[in-house]
Amino acid sequence: xxxxxxxxKWPPRRIALVIAIVLFLALVGWGLSTTTGGRKFNVExxxxxxxxxxxxxxxxxxxVTGNVLPRTTIYLDAVEGGRIEEIFLxxxxxxxxxQPILRLSNTSxxxxxxxxxxxxxxxxxxxxxxRFQVEQNNLNLRQQLTDMDYNIQRLQRDIxxxxxxxxxxxxxxxxxxxxxxxxxxxxxxRDLTVQAYRQDSLRQTLQIQQMTQxxxxxxxxxxxxxxxxxxLTLRAPVAGQLTAxxxxxxxxxxxxxxxxQIDVLDGVKxxxxxxxxxxxxxxxxxxxxxxxIAGQEYEMVIRRVYPEVRDGRFEVDLDFVGESPxxxxxxxxxxxxxxxxxxxxxxxxxxxxxxxxxxxxxVYVLDESGDFAIRRSIRLGRKNPQVFEVLEGLEPGxxxxxxxxxxxxxxxRLILK
Length: 417
Description:
This protein is an alpha+beta fold and 417 residues long. The protein has 4 domains: 38-59 and 344-416, conserved putative lor/sdh protein from methanococcus maripaludis s2 fold, CATH 2.40.420; 61-68 and 261-339, Elongation Factor Tu (Ef-tu), domain 3, CATH 2.40.30.170; 74-102 and 233-253; 108-230. 35% of the residues lie in helices and 33% in strands. The longest helix has 61 residues, at 107-167. The two termini are 75 Å apart.
């Protein structure tokens, strides 16, 4: 028997169509909500910081902290080692140039001085003895030459007379030749004596010269040892303040030991560590400006840049331009701003906690009414301790929330209450 089958009011095709319509309407609603405000978040106006975008001079600066040091420091190092026998001054004393600070003793150095003195005196004695012998030899030689000259003159007269007598057959040829041979003998002997004298003179002159040079070297060696003994008394190389002294009576110190330092009272400098990121942008004569010291800012310039990097930082020395602050003291901390560029005209945005959340890629910009703020993409450039340089996305006069965005989540619009 046939029976009538009732048709369902919600067939699957109709259900699918309804679901599709609902999804379409939801999508349209979401799009409309996005274009008219997106995800919203209510914020109390008193809990956010609002800053105005401005156009004006911008200069890239970095904040740096340094310590005050004496402009000139002289270190006191031991030239010779020894035992500390006396300490004349204490740490903190104001010293004059060449004023004794402490005295060492060194037995080995004193023995070296005695040995050098003995050798020096012996060399001087040998030199004087050699000179005396040379003078004696010269005197004897001159006496010999005088005797030979006398005999040559005498024999010359004898030969002349013998020649006359021989020509007259008054003497024999043997007697005449004997007188002539004796004359020739003295002439040859004199020539040989003069030649030997010249050679001996050259040799003796060279010998005396060598001995004199040896004596001079011993004098120099003796003088050096005396100077080394003088260094056992540590003296102030310059006038200033003895700010450190590491010495106790009876201590043994080796050469090169640093006893302390003297600070010259000619002013102060500031030594600061700078992040290695800026090492290629920091140079001599670069300008810096201190935070107020006793209510006044002071200008400084970089005098020296140390190239060595330690723990991600490198050091610079800065001098005050003009007079340094009278209130600063050695070791005091000074904060200053180091100029990294010349002033230029730019659009700027004050620094704030928003940067930690957005990385400078977007901000919340207030509407003209000031009742809400909309998220907007921007691009930032350089910064200094006060402001960012705005490259894109903001115009002068616009207001921006610059405080932290940590509690705003992913809101596209902030409603200010």
